[in-house]
Each structure stands twice: as C-alpha cells, then as structure tokens.
Amino acid sequence: MNTDLDTLMIRFSALKDAGRLMELDHQVWDHRTAPQPLVWESREQYLLHCPPGQQLVAETGDGTLAGYLGFKAPTELDSSQHVYELWIAVDRQYRRRGIGVRLMTAFKAFARREGKLKLRLRVLSSNEAAAAFYRTCGFREEGRLVREYHVKGQYVDDILMACFL
C-alpha cells in the first residue's frame, strides 16, 4: 500500500517552514508535554529562537511537515561543544508511524558527522510515552529534578536523559 509516508523525506528546516513549525509547536507543547504551553508571539520571535537549519523536518510525499527534531549546543562554552541538546515533536495524526524514529536516526548520523559525542534532552515525568520513546532510541536517565514543576495541580519531575554516540 502506497502512503504519503512511503516517500518521507528528512531534511533541514528552511525559512518557508516557519509557519508550519509554529503550528506544530502550538499543537504539541501543551501541559502534558511542557511546563507551560509554547506560544509564539510572532513569526519573527519564532525565527529568532528557532532559525532555519536548526531542525530536521520530516516531510511527507504530499509536502506535509509531519514532525521535526530541533537541536542546539547546550551552551556557548568550548568545553560543551561535543554535546547537542534536542527536542522532538510529531503531529498527532502521524504519531506511532515511525516518524520519530526516522528523525532520531537521521539526527544521530548528522551529530556523529559533526563530531558530537553526547545528545541530551529533558522530559516531564508525566509524559511517560515520550520517556519510553527516548529509552527505545538509546537514551538513559542521567538525573531528575524532583517536583520541578507544578502543572495542572500536580507536581512533576523534570527528567534529564542522554544518549552517548
């Protein structure tokens, strides 16, 4: 069966993707997945924080951006330039179809070519599905900030995870 995912392309983000990436952020980063919902005030604000080329995007055969993996250096210090911090978002209608795994696999290959040795991320303890996904991608818990956030009447931990390449 031919689907729009048969020709899924993983590529770096471009300026033209900003609007759709902002939509994905609005859809994905809510109280279940973040300490507070992510809302961009403007396209300019988004581009200032997420410039083109700082995400890998998953584009379906029909041109739909189904997800992305954003990344950055964790600090500007020379001593941490072997590390990338990352976050991943997949459109609800495309979840559990292998897009996250394909983004992560492509990103790991890119990070290795860039000479990176460690990938790190943060996930809320209340987001068990995401934590399980990261574990299947080779991430392990490095630390936990206990009761770091108070979200919708409950305290949640901020789990720090890492994958060594």
UniProtKB/TrEMBL annotation:
A GO MF label: acyltransferase activity, transferring groups other than amino-acyl groups
UniProt xrefs under CDD domains: NAT_SF
Listed transmembrane segments: none
UniProt cross-references to Pfam families, sorted A to Z: Acetyltransf_1
Organism domain of life: Bacteria
Signal peptide: none
Record's keyword terms, sorted: Acyltransferase, Transferase
Domain N-acetyltransferase positions: 8-165
PANTHER family: AMINOALKYLPHOSPHONATE N-ACETYLTRANSFERASE-RELATED-RELATED
Protein name: Acetyltransferase, GNAT family
Highest classification ranks of the organism: Bacteria, Bacillati, Bacillota, Bacilli, Bacillales
